[in-house]
Amino acid sequence: MRQGLIFAAMFLLMAAAAPARADVKIAYVDIQRALNESNAGKHARANIKGQAERAQAKLQREQSEAQALKDELDKKGMLMPPEQRQNLEDELGRKMRGFQDDVKNERDELRQKDNEATAAIIRDLATIVRQLGEKDGYTVVMEKGGLLWGIPSADITDQVIRAYDAMKVRAGSLSADPAWASAGTQGATQADSPSVGGEEGSGSIRKHSSISR
Predict the structure, then answer these.
(1) Residue 213 counted as domain residue
(2) Is the pTM of this model over 0.85?
(3) Is 30 helix (H, G, I), strand (E, B) or coil?
(4) Under a CB-based contact definition with an 8 Å cutoff, are residues 118 and 202 in contact?
(5) Any domain includes 109
(6) Does 98 reside within a domain?
(7) pLDDT tens, residue by residue, 167-197
(8) Number of folded domains in the chain?
C-alpha cells in the first residue's frame, strides 16, 4: 500500500509538471468490487462457500464423535476394566488428533482455493484493464487501493466488469500478459489471508484482495 501511494504521488507530480499541451488521462479500478460483482467472482465465491459448508459439516461430525467418546469415558471410565478404559482413551486421542489435523487441512485447502480463484480473476481483470486503457487512450490506470482520492468519473470499474462478463470466459484464461503470468503462485505461503502473488505492481492487490470477501 505504501509503495502504491508513493507511486501515485510521484505520477501525479510528473503529470502536473508535463507541458500543458500533453493530454494526461487517468483512471482507476476498484479490484475488490470487480471481484465481488463480476460473474466469474460470484461463481468462484459460491463454489468456495459450498466447499466451506461441506468442510464444516464434516468437522462437526468428527467433533461429535470425539465428544461422545469423552462423555462415555467421563460417565463409565471408572467402572471399566483398565484395558478397556485405556483402549477408549487411545481411541479418543486418535480422534482428537485427527480432528485437529483436519481443521488445519480444511482451512489450508480453502485458503489455497481462494488464492487460486482470486489470482485467476485478477489476471483476467488486469488484461481487460490493459485493453480498455489502450482502446480509450488512458495514460495510466491505477488500483483504487493505492489512491488517497479520485473523482468518481475516473472510476472505470463498471466498464471493466461489463467487459469481463460479456466475454463469458473461464476464469484465468485471459492472462496472456507475461507480467501477470506468475500471479497467485505465492499467495498461499506468504499471506495470512487469501491473496494473490505476481509482479511488483500487483503487491497491494495481492495483500488486500480476496474472492471470499
Answers:
(1) no
(2) no
(3) coil
(4) no
(5) yes
(6) yes
(7) 999 998 886 554 544 444 443 333 333 332 3
(8) 1
